From TrEMBL:
Membrane topology annotation: Multi-pass membrane protein
SUPFAM superfamilies reported in the protein's UniProt record: ABC transporter transmembrane region, P-loop containing nucleoside triphosphate hydrolases
Keyword terms: ATP-binding, Membrane, Nucleotide-binding, Transmembrane, Transmembrane helix
Protein's recorded name: ATP-binding cassette subfamily B protein/ATP-binding cassette subfamily C protein
PANTHER family: ATP-BINDING CASSETTE SUB-FAMILY B (PTHR24221), HAEMOLYSIN SECRETION ATP-BINDING PROTEIN (PTHR24221:SF646)
Locations listed in the record: Cell membrane
SMART domains according to UniProt: AAA
Chain ranges of the ABC transmembrane type-1 domain: 72-360
Domain ABC transporter: 393-634
Ranges annotated as spanning the membrane: 75-96, 116-136, 187-208, 214-234, 314-341
InterPro entries, alphabetized: AAA+_ATPase, ABC1_TM_dom, ABC1_TM_sf, ABC_transporter-like_ATP-bd, P-loop_NTPase, Type_1_exporter
Gene Ontology MF terms in the entry: ABC-type transporter activity; ATP binding; ATP hydrolysis activity; ATPase-coupled lipid transmembrane transporter activity
CC per GO annotation: plasma membrane
Length: 651
């Protein structure tokens, strides 16, 4: 079965309709988590059955590692319930034998009574055991989910940052998160169901073998067409799901655009309502047609299945009749065999469905396992010398090339930074400033060259203790959906409230954020997420002040500030740069396009195409001429009158 991805549908060649055609959304590509779908659709049931022992072993391993007690309980009680099935059937034969015996009815009923009580007790015991087994099984699911999710996030937060630039890694992570992670509990669930189904069939077979072994082939005769029909129905359902998945994703995407706080303003300002509703209607129409087709084809499959089952039952009845007539089987045994067939039928259905589902889910679960293995290779090993801080940071021929790119973003850069300095990185967009700053901050490891803290290669230092001396105000900060207080404290969440370093308020004041925070409805306790009750949002500039407060609260020896004032008003920017001044204990690395802010820096490094092209202080660089002078004068000209601007540009 192939999922067909069609190009955008062109309605007509003339100009009026080609506009409409351009508006038709292209079909979406198969999502990553669908990549096993074709493999599943094309695998035969027997191929699946062959892999079963390994899959079952794996699932039991997952369950065992999560809770031995619940694993033993759910499997053990299911087996005990199967034993009760055998007892029940044997007791039923006894009841029927007594009832079909010669003699007056009251005597026959009296004789059947003990066996009847036994049969009733077996049914009750089976019911109780099944419920208890279901309880243990249901207890396993959340425990497994919790364990698997935690493992996933332990790994995703430990891998090095560069892993996220690798498209292959990102795709594997999405696959593992989308489905792989969820399937761990499913494979355990399906395995227990499979065991339950198989135990049910075996228990029935055992009862039949005790009653009359010659009836066993009858059980088989009824079971085979049942099994084939169950597989076909399950497969058809799955293929139908595949065929509809692209459309359903599109509908989900459209629904999300029409009922979403983040898109609401644009949907209104571009008056997209009719366009979106039209697309949604179009999708709904074809979805409805697909639903009707599905119902029709399912009915056809069921008719075929029911006919096959009917024929099988007919054949079984014929065989049973023959055995009765020839005296091979007693009437009571034949009647019990019919009951046994019903029980076996249900158990078989459960086992077949569980096998199909187990196979499918196990493929996705493997994605999760593969991702964990891959992530382990990308996790920086703990250990190494503890980093005690630095007096100098030295970059020696440092380069970094992002994955799948031809040119290095930072190319053989050598420089020395000293504690107590304010250093600026300047240059045009894409020149490599942020990448260099991330290398200095230890967020990336160089692809070649060495970074040394007081002469020690940072690769030999313990990554955790190295990171504890660094704070980074990133350019692309995230709006963490926490309270204001938490948003600042996560800068150094493990510092006790009255521990060393600036207090929460001091950090907020230094970032010109304190007054703004006090004006919020709940002050420092205001939750910064509109999607929760009493949540609040901030303007871009207010957020940036908060991010600055967080970095200052971190109070690290190395403070890297990437465009710390891009969204700030003039007053807040002035206040912030007053704070980002020389401090004997701190090295500040500053990236900004507003060159007025770097005039007082001790050293300014000018970058172009990943390389350092100039360095010096402001006066030296202005005297040198070149890129820095050109950029500075261009910016300065915006603040001058026309006449002085011309003079500045020509100076
Ligand atoms: N994660 C990434 N993966 C691949 N290439 C990247 C990545 N980040 C940046 N680049 C590329 O590396 C080069 C340097 O980017 P960088 O962000 O360091 O420049 P920048 O000088 O900080 O730019 P800007 O002034 O616009 O912030 C650019 O060509 C950019 O496209």
């Amino acid at each position: 079965m192939e999922t067909v991805i069609r190009p955008p549908q062109v309605l007509n060649q003339d100009e009026t309709t080609s506009n409409e055609a351009e508006l038709v959304l292209p079909e979406l590509e198969d999502p990553d988590w669908m990549h096993h779908a074709r493999q599943i659709a094309q695998t035969s049931f027997w191929a699946v059955a062959r892999r079963l022992p390994r899959l079952v072993g794996e699932a039991i391993g997952v369950a065992w590692a999560t809770s031995r007690r619940d694993t033993i309980t759910s499997i053990g009680l299911n087996i005990a319930a199967g034993v009760m099935t055998t007892f029940g059937l044997l007791a039923t034969t006894r009841v029927l034998t007594e009832l079909f015996a010669a003699g007056p009815t009251p005597d026959r009923v009296r004789a059947a009574l003990p066996a009847l009580l036994l049969a009733a007790a077996a049914v009750m015991a089976k019911g109780g055991l099944t419920i208890a087994a279901g309880w243990a099984q249901a207890r396993l699911v959340p425990q497994i989910n919790y364990r698997v999710e935690l493992r996933m996030f332990e790994v995703t937060t430990a891998v090095d940052l560069a892993a996220f630039d690798d498209a292959g890694f990102a795709e594997e992570m999405d696959r593992a998160r989308d489905r792989g992670m969820r399937e761990a509990a499913s494979i355990v669930d399906h395995t227990v169901n499979l065991i339950t189904g198989v135990v049910g069939v075996l228990a029935t077979a055992a009862a039949v073998a005790v009653i009359q072994p010659i009836l066993l082939p009858c059980l088989l005769l009824a079971a085979v067409p049942e099994a084939i029909t169950a597989v076909r129905v399950a497969r058809r359902q799955y293929l139908n799901l595949l065929a509809r998945i692209t459309r359903r994703r599109r509908m989900w995407m459209l629904a999300n655009l029409m009922a979403n706080r983040h898109t609401a303003a644009e949907v209104r300002s571009y008056q997209m309502r009719e366009f979106l509703l039209g697309e949604y209607r179009r999708m709904m129409n074809s979805e409805t047609r697909a639903d009707l087709d599905l119902v029709r084809s399912q009915t056809a499959t069921r008719v075929l299945g029911a006919s096959a089952a009917g024929l099988a039952s007919f054949a079984v009845y014929a065989v049973l009749g023959g055995l009765l007539l020839t005296g091979w089987v007693a009437l009571a045994a034949a009647a019990t065999a019919l009951l046994a067939l019903q029980t076996a039928h249900t158990s078989l259905g459960v086992a077949v469905f569980a096998t199909n589902s187990l196979y499918e889910d196990a493929l996705y679960y493997q994605d999760y396992r593969d991702f964990l293995d891959r992530a382990r290779l990308r996790t920086l090993p703990a250990g190494g010398e503890p980093a005690a801080g630095f007096d100098t940071i030295e970059l020696d021929q440092v380069s970094l090339r992002y994955p799948d790119t031809d040119t290095p973003a930072v190319d053989k850069v050598s420089l020395t930074l000293r504690r107590g300095q304010v250093v600026a990185l300047v240059g045009e967009n894409g020149s490599g400033k942020t990448t260099l700053a991330k290398l200095i901050a230890g967020l990336y490891r160089p692809t070649s060259g060495t970074i040394r803290w007081d002469g020690v290669d940072t690769a030999d230092l313990d990554p955790h203790s190295l990171g504890s001396h660094i704070a980074v105000m990133t350019q692309d900060w995230w709006k963490f959906p926490f309270t204001v207080r938490q948003n600042i404290r996560i800068g150094r969440h493990d510092r006790p409230a009255h521990g060393p370093g600036p207090s929460l308020e001091d950090a907020a004041r230094a970032a010109a954020a304190h007054d703004m925070i006090l004006d919020l409805p709940y002050g420092y306790n205001t939750l910064l997420d509109r999607e929760f009750k009493n949540g609040h949002d901030l303007s871009g500039g207010q957020w940036q002040r908060l991010v600055a407060a967080r970095s200052l609260y971190r109070d690290a020896r190395l403070l890297v500030c990437d465009e710390p004032s891009a969204a700030l008003d003039a007053r807040a920017e002035h206040a912030m740069f007053q704070h980002l001044r020389r401090h004997p204990d701190r090295l500040i690395v500053l990236i900004t396009h507003r060159l007025a802010n770097v005039r007082h820096a001790d050293q300014i490094y000018v970058m172009r195409d990943g390389q350092l092209v100039q360095q010096g202080n402001h006066d030296e660089l202005m005297a040198q001429g070149g890129l820095y002078q050109e950029l500075f004068n261009l910016q300065a000209s915006g603040y001058l009158s026309d006449a002085s601007s011309r003079t500045a540009q020509h100076s």
